[in-house]
Write a structure and sequence with these properties.
Four Helix Bundle (Hemerythrin (Met), subunit A), mainly alpha, 6 helices
Amino acid sequence: MATKTSDLLAAAAPRTVAVVRGIADDQFDLPTPCSEYAVRDLMNHLFQVVVNFQQLAAKRPAEWADKPDFLNDGWRDRFEAETRRLIDAWADPASLEGVSPGMGLPQATVGGMVLLDLTVHGWDLAVATGQPYQPAPEAVRALHELVEQLGPNARKMGVFAEAVPARADLPDLDRLLAGTGRDPVWAAGTR
C-alpha cells in the first residue's frame, strides 16, 4: 500500500541518500546553511529525524532529548535502510489519520514535516559538501503550502529563520529555501 506522503518520501529519499553517501568523513566539521550545525551535527540531526518520524507515523512517542551519534561504522548504509523504513511507515494509510499524540498536529502535517526535513536538509548537506542536488520536483511543490502554513509558528520556535525575500520568478526550490529562512545562494564562508 502507499499514500501520497510515502510516494513523496520515496521520490525525495534517494536524492538525499545520494548526498549522504557523498559526504566524506573529513567534511564533518564544515559549516552548513544551518548556522548552529556543522555537517556532522546536521547529519546526526537528519538521521534522528528519519528514525523518530517512523515512530511518529505509528503514533508512538519519539525521543528528541537524546542526541545520539549515528555516524559510526556503516552509517551511510544504515541511513539508507532507515529512509526505506520511514517510507514504509508512512505508506500505511492509518499513519495519516487523526492528530499526532506527541506533536498535537494533524498526522498529515507531521508527514509533511519529515518530507521537508529530508528535502531541505538534503540541500543543506549538498551545498555544505560541494555536491550537486536536485530535489524531487513533486516534493518541492507539495512543500510550499506546508512552509507557508508552519512558517509563523516555526519562526517563533526557532525552527525556521526569518524568511528571505524571494522573487516569484525564482525556481521552486529557491523559493522553498527562502521560506525556511535559508539563502538559496548560500556558500561556505558567506554566513
